[in-house]
Structures
1.
Amino acid sequence: MTSAPLPRILRRRGEPEYPTFLELFFDLVYIFMFSRLAASLAENLTVRGAAQTAVLLLAAWWVWVLTAWLTDLFNPRLPIIQATTLLVMLGTLLMAIATPYAFGRYGWLFVAAYFSIHLIRDAVLIPGTRVNHPIQARSIRVFFWFGITVTPWVAGVFVDGTARLVLWSIAVVVDLGSARIGWPTPRLGRTELASQIFTGVHLSERHRAIFIVALGELILSTGTGLAGSDFTAGQLAAGAVAFGSAVLLFQLYFQRVQRILAPPRVATVERVRPGTSTSYSHLVMVAGVVLVSTSTSTVIDRPFGHAPAGLLVATLGGPALFLLGSVLFDAVVTGRLLWSRVLAIAALGALMAPAALLLPPLAALVLANLVLLITLVGEGLAARNRLVGAAAPSG
C-alpha cells in the first residue's frame, strides 16, 4: 500500500529553506501596521487603550503567522501561492488603515479585511490539497475554527465600547488558542501536536525577519518624532536614547538567537507544539517593541516634566514585555529559564514604584535602557567565561 503523492502545491523537503524575496516584501506592510498600532496607543495610554491595541495586534499577528506557515508548508515559488500572499498583503494593508478607527466607525472594515484574508487563503489551500487527505484536513480544521469565531467578530461590529472589546477579545483568543490545541474538529479530529510539519530554518528566519520589521518601525517612529520636534537639547537627547533602545533590543535578540538556534536545536521548532509556541513568544517580543515605540515617540515630544502613569508603564513595560517574550522563547527551545532576563524583568517592575512618577519621562527611558545594557553586558561576559572554561585544558 503506497501513500498518496504530495500535491505540487506543497513544499518538499530539501527545497530552499530560506525566505523568498516575496515573503520579505510581504513583511513590509507590517511596518505600517505596527506604526498605526503604536500611534493609536500613544493617543490613548489607558488600560482600555492597551486592551484595544492588544486585540488588534493579536489579529494582525495571527494573519502574519498563518502567512508564515503558508509559505513554510506550501511552495512559495508557485504563482498561486505568490498571488495568495499578495492578496493577504493587500488585506493586511486595509486592516492597518482601519486600525486607529477599528473601535469606532471603521470596525466593519477591519473585520471584513480580516475574514477576506482567511477566506482567500482557504479557498486556495483546501482545493489545492485534495489529493492528500491529511494535509487537506489540516486546512479544513483551520477553516472550521474561523467559522466559529466569525460570529463574535461580526457581532462586535454592531455594538460599541466594552461590548465590542469583549466580543473581539473572545474571538481573537479562540483564533490563536485553537492552533495551540491542534484545531480539534468534528469527524476530522485534530492536528497531532507532536507531528513534524514546519521547516525549522525557514520558520526561524521568518520570525527573525518580523522582529527586524518591528525594530524598523521603532527607528521610523524615533526619526519621525525627532523630525517633527523643535530640536531642543532634551528632544535630541530623547531621540538618541530611543535609538539606543533599538540597538539594545537588537543586540539582546540576536545575541541569544544565534546561540540557541544553531543546529541541531533549530529542529525543535519543526513540530506543531514548539512551532506555535515560538510564534507566540515572538508575538510577546514584538508587542514589547511596539510598546517601546509608543513610549519613545511620546518621550521625544515631552522629555521633561511630569510623567503620567500610563507613559511610565509603557516606558518600562515595553522592555519588560520584550524580555518576557525572549524568556518564553528560550524556554521553548532549551527547556530552561534565562535567569538573567527574569532578574531584568523584576528590576523593571521594581522601577514602576509610585516614586518613579516623580521622574521626568526621559529619565525613565534612560533607566529602562540601563537595565537592558546591564543585561546585555552580563550575558556577554557569562558567555565569554563559558567559552574560556571550555577551552581551558583539564588538569
Note: The mean pLDDT is 87.
2.
Amino acid sequence: MSRDIRPFIESDWPAVWPIIEAVCRAGETYTYPVDIDEQTARSYWIEPPPGATVVLEEDGEVLGTAKMGPNRPGNGAHVGTASFMVADAARGRGVGRALGEHVIAWHREQGFRGIQFNAVVESNAAAVHLWQDLGFGIVGTVPGAFRSPAHGYTGLHVMYLPLAEA
C-alpha cells in the first residue's frame, strides 16, 4: 500500500468532485448547499495561494482531500483554517487523521499561530473526536446553527488549536 498526500493538480478534479458531491448531498457535515453544482463546488474547494488544496492518494486512488489557508485576511491572517472531505469507501481507514496531521504540519511550516475551524457540526461525533484527539479544543458552540437531515437543528462548534503562544 502506497499512501501519499500531495498538492492538488487539475487532473485530480474528476476524482475530487464525486467526494465533494457525496458529502454535500448527504447534508450532515458541511454548510454547503446539498444541491451544489460542480462549478460552485470547485470555486469553494480549490484554495488559491497563500492557501493550498491537497489530496490523499492510496495506490493511485484519491481517497480524501483537504484545503487550508488563512482563516481571515489582513490582521487575522496569522490564524489558519482548513476543511476536509473523505470518500465514503475510505471512512475509518485513517484518511481524515492523516490529512489532519498534514494540515497541522503545513500551518506550522507556514508560520501560522493557530488553526481555527469555524463550523464543526456538533452531531458529527467522529470529526469532533478526531479534532480533539489532535489537540483542538471547542471554544464555543452556536446552538442550532446547522440543520441536519438526521438530527434536526444542531450546534456548530468553533474549534481551535494554538500553534504559538498568544
Note: Residues 20 and 85 are 7 Å apart (CA to CA).
3.
Amino acid sequence: MHCPFCQNSDTRVIDSRVSEDGATIRRRRECEACGERFSTLETVELKLPMIIKSDGRRDQFDARKLRQGFDRALQKRPVSEEQIEAAVRAVVHQLRMSTEREIASRRVGEFVMAELRKLDHVGYVRFASVYRAFEDVADFREELDRLEHDLPGEGQLPLLGAEIVPIDRHAEKKKR
C-alpha cells in the first residue's frame, strides 16, 4: 500500500478491526518513511454477472438501478427501508449464487417480482404491470386473480375500517 502523503511503498499495519456487519476490515497504517498514519478499508470484491438487456445490449449490474425499481414499486406503501434493503440484498445474493457470467434482465425482473410479492402485493402488481407491459385492465385483472389464487388466506391487512369479506370470483363471473 502506497503512502498517500509521500507515495512511499513501505507502510505497516498498526491495527485491524472488522466492521459490525463483518463486510469490511478497517486497517490503521503507518508510513515507514514519513511516519504519517492513515486508514484503509478492505472489502470483498465479487464480480456480479453482466445483464443482457432485451435488445441484446450488455450492461454492468447496477445496484442503484435495482434499488430505484424497488423504490418506484413501493412508493407510498407501508414498507420499511430495512425491508427494501433486505429485498435488494436478496436479489444481489441470487445473482451471486447464479454463478453465471451473464444473465438476462428478464431473469433479474423475476427475482425482483418474487421479493416484491413477499413484501407488498400492491408494489408487486405495480412492478408487474411495467415489467410484463400490461396493455389493458384485463391484464391487471388476470394478474390479480393469479395473485389471489396463489396466496389464499395469506392476503395483506385490509384498509383501515374495511371489513374482510371473502370474494367468490366464480359467482361474479356467473352474474355477468
Note: The two ends are 75 Å apart (CA to CA).
